């Protein structure tokens, strides 16, 4: 499906940028977090992803799983970071 985000289904490519949302210092209630994330996705032209995220969170049955699902759709402190590739120590300087 076009516009899927990484983690929503393995092997799909990210076609849209994930909007950023801060978790620290905010209401920790999962429904408050879900509402903020859903609104953020809709404001960034991703209403289908907002619905998919909500459906997955409702079915998760676990607070921590739900947080990880939200973090797949919007970038949070829990989102996986891609680190720049470091060169091996054995590689000669150029």
Model description:
With 94 residues, the chain is mostly helical. 22% of the residues are buried. Helix 1 (30-43) packs parallel to helix 3. Helix content is 41%, strand content 0%. The radius of gyration is 16 Å and the shape is globular.
Query: What can be said about the biggest beta sheet?
Result: none
Tell me, rounded to a whole number, the average pLDDT. 80
Please indicate the percent range of residues in DSSP E strands (runs of 2 or more): under 5%
Radius of gyration: 16 Å
Per-chain topology:
Blueprint: H1 30-43, H2 47-60, H3 63-73
Helix pairs in contact: 1-2, 1-3, 2-3
Output the keywords.
94 residues, mainly alpha, 0% strand
Task: Put the structure in a nutshell.
The chain has helices at 30-43, 47-60, 63-73. The protein is mainly α and 94 residues long. The longest helix is centred in the middle third of the chain and has 14 residues, at 30-43.
């Amino acid at each position: 499906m076009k516009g899927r985000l990484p983690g929503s289904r393995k092997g799909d490519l990210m076609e849209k940028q994930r909007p950023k949302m801060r978790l620290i210092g905010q209401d920790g209630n999962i429904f408050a977090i879900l509402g903020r994330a859903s609104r953020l996705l809709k404001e960034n032209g991703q209403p289908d992803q907002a619905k998919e995220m909500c459906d997955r969170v409702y079915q998760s049955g676990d607070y921590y799983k739900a947080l990880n699902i939200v973090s797949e759709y919007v970038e949070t402190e829990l989102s996986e970071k891609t680190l720049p590739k470091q060169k091996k120590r054995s590689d000669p300087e150029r």
